[in-house]
Design brief:
Strand order of the largest sheet: 1-4-2-3
Order of helices and strands: HEHHEEE
Largest sheet: 4 strands, antiparallel
Shape: globular
Number of strands: 4
Number of helices: 3
Helix content: 40-55%
Oligomer: single chain
């Protein structure tokens, strides 16, 4: 269920400074039972893909913006216009 991953991603971002990032594994660890977070990663990736497509989040790696999710990435809030 991607809604849990979606809501958790947005909640983790909201709890941090506006320029902070979240690791996708943090989201997975927050929604999955202990030791099962890796199994939750496909749900997290799907939720992040949707949030990215909707313009709610940005993706980056090592400070460089990404045009989509591929390989390692960090999640941040989308810049408000």
């Amino acid at each position: 269920m991607t809604s849990g991953a979606r809501d958790t991603t947005l909640a983790l971002l909201a709890a941090r400074s506006p320029d902070a990032t979240v690791c996708p594994s943090e989201v997975a660890r927050a929604i999955a039972p202990e030791h099962a977070w890796r199994e939750a990663m496909p749900l997290v990736h799907a939720a992040v893909d949707r949030l990215f497509e909707e313009g709610h989040v940005r993706l980056s790696w090592q400070g460089r913006p990404l045009t989509g999710r591929a390989g390692p990435y960090r999640i941040s809030r989308a810049i408000s216009p």
